[in-house]
Amino acid sequence: MIKKNPLRTMLDWVEKIFFVIQAVCLYASIATVVVTVLARELFKISIVWGYEIACWFVIILLFLGMAGNLHHRRNLSVTFVFDIINPVAQKFLQVLHFLVEVVVICMMAVGFQTWITKVGGGKLPASGFTNIQYYGIIGVGILFSVLELICEIVDLAVKKEPNKASEASEGEEETV
């Protein structure tokens, strides 16, 4: 057993950086759309690259968010059902969920690798970005999602320290 997961420490740091990047991308995407619409409607100026840039910010936001959601173990689930079933079934569903995550991320990685080898050399017409510059963040999101899944496996080998708060509350219950 190891005392601390070094990969978890690194991913905590990376996630903080991703959060800042996501915030910037959210506001930059909104600003790009607002500027594009105002330029078109008020000044009759067409900003041809506006849509591509706004979408690029959203792609960054979503694929870094995918890794962030795995990092915080936030995802869509039916908690009502999960919370009322017995602990054995909960463990089974957690393992099943992890396996589904692995399969989906592997499928994404294979699809991304196949796509990038077939059309990776192309360019977007309005912005002039290459496909790698534009869609490369998808690979980064997949990479960090894989690291999060590996980190979950390593976390199983980390020695769990007893929770001081739960020990204190158990002691209080006994004295009452």
Tell me the layout of helices and strands.
Blueprint: H1 6-42, H2 50-71, H3 79-84, H4 87-119, H5 131-155, H6 164-175
Radius of gyration: 22 Å
- The percent range for strand residues is under 5%
CA(first)-CA(last) distance: 37 Å
Largest sheet: none
Separate helix tally: 6
**Helix and strand composition category:** mainly alpha
* Percent of residues in helices: over 70%
SSE ordering: HHHHHH
Mean pLDDT, nearest integer?
Answer: 84
How many strands? 0
Low-confidence stretches: 172-176
Global geometry: elongated
Your description of this structure?
This protein is an all-alpha fold. Helix content is 77%, strand content 0%. It contains six helices and no strands. The longest helix has 37 residues, at 6-42. Residues 172-176 have low confidence and may be disordered.
Which properties best describe this structure?
single chain, 176 residues, mainly alpha, 6 helices
Summarize the structure.
By secondary structure, this protein is an all-alpha fold.
